[in-house]
Amino acid sequence: MSVEVSKIVQGVEPSATLAMSAKAKELKAQGETVYNLSVGEPDFNTPDHICDAAVAAMKAGHTRYTVASGLPELKQAICDDYRKRTGFEYKPTQCVVSNGAKHSLHNAFFGSLNPGDEVILPAPYWVSYAELIKLSGAKPVIVQTTEADGFKLTPDAFLAAITPKTRMLLLCNPSNPTGACYSRDELAALAKIVVEKDLVVVADEIYDHLVYGGNGFTSFPTLMDGLQDRTILINGVSKTYAMTGWRIGWLLAPEPFAKKIGGLQSQETSNPCSISQYAAIAALQGDQGCVEAMKVEFEKRRNYVTQRIADIPGISAPPMGGAFYAFINISAHLGRKYGGVQVETSKDWCLELLQQKKVATVMGSAFGCEGYARASFAASMETLEIAYDRIAEFLA
Length: 396
Ligand SMILES: Cc1ncc(COP(=O)(O)O)c(C=O)c1O
Prior knowledge:
The protein has 13 helices and 14 strands. By secondary structure, it is of the alpha/beta class. The protein starts with 6 loop residues before the first helix and ends with a helix. The chain has helices at 7-10, 16-29, 48-59, 72-86, 101-112, 127-135, 155-161, 184-196, 255-268, 274-285, 289-311, 346-357, 381-395, and strands at residues 35-36, 95-98, 118-123, 139-144, 166-172, 200-204, 231-236, 249-252, 325-329, 336-338, 341-343, 359-360, 362-363, 372-376. Helix 8 links the parallel strand 5 (166-172) and strand 6 (200-204). Helix 3 packs across helix 10 (274-285), helix 5 packs parallel to helix 6 (127-135) and helix 5 (101-112) packs across helix 9 (255-268). It has 2 domains: 7-45 and 290-395, Aspartate Aminotransferase, domain 1; 48-285, Type I PLP-dependent aspartate aminotransferase-like (Major domain) (Aspartate Aminotransferase, domain 2, 3-Layer(aba) Sandwich). The protein is globular. The strands form 4 sheets. It has a 7-stranded mixed sheet with strand order 2-8-7-6-5-3-4, sandwiched between helices. Residues 40, 100-102, 126, 172, 176, 204, 206, 236, 238, 244, 249 line the site of pyridoxal-5'-phosphate.
């Protein structure tokens, strides 16, 4: 018998953001200058003191297996950092450190969902959620949010989507791909329904440090008593400390669940990279000036991009409250020709923009929202200036 792909894996789509990024790299390899706004990672280098800690860890011989669920010192650093920022306590035994937040999300879904369970997934959503939920055998139930609502899930839409099979709400705050950032009151209204309907929440807060325009950030489990018991909190060092390649993320959850997930991970992958774990300790315990400096730079770019989008006729984007993406409404510019090529969908539009103007973005359809394109502003000001000049030329 030849090797065949399982039914579950057949249903999994590859990541569209990584596919667009690969296409951009392909053009680059052919000698083209590409202005890449498709990526979801800071363009800064990992700060020196974090890299130094990794070198020191290697030299000190920390190159062996660690506890599968992560070093106790790192778990402590994660809990200390959370307490410092929110005043809220988690114990290290409630923490599982994994190979990036994406792995933590997989553990959260796979470890808590059963076949047939429904997960409410507000759209536009980050590309991996729907696929990871499907991998666990559960069903993503997509709830479309609107630009008029700032792409935030409203209590009415949430209530309307709940069925007897609903088990979980996925909440990404601040949002990839829209930059939406929920206020405390907006979150509290959703939390009330979560409790009333006896649901679980996966709260992905990986962009929690990147909040702009004086918006405060509220971490979901801190909203009311008892919420901690029904929340799986996801975070990591990738976005906050420009450490996407180091692959360190974590979940914080009720202790019995975390214990079981640690056991699962001991069978699946063992520990995340020991050296990266020491680097993550340095990131969390070191001077946080680097985080503030990167945030200041992102906010400058976000303000610039907001103005450029406002100045281009026929496109718009909701206010970018957090993260580093503009989610641009291009619907008025679909159904027409660009350089003789008919463009109907956001996918056509992004491919033609890349082909004709060498600017890489990601089609809204990949995020469950046709008529939009996601453009990262985790790129230098120079790249952003040229990219938006070209987008304006393309649309004109
Ligand atoms: C919303 C969101 N969650 C999780 C992740 C995964 O992060 P990591 O690099 O730690 O796996 C990303 C990465 O793009 C993301 O945008």
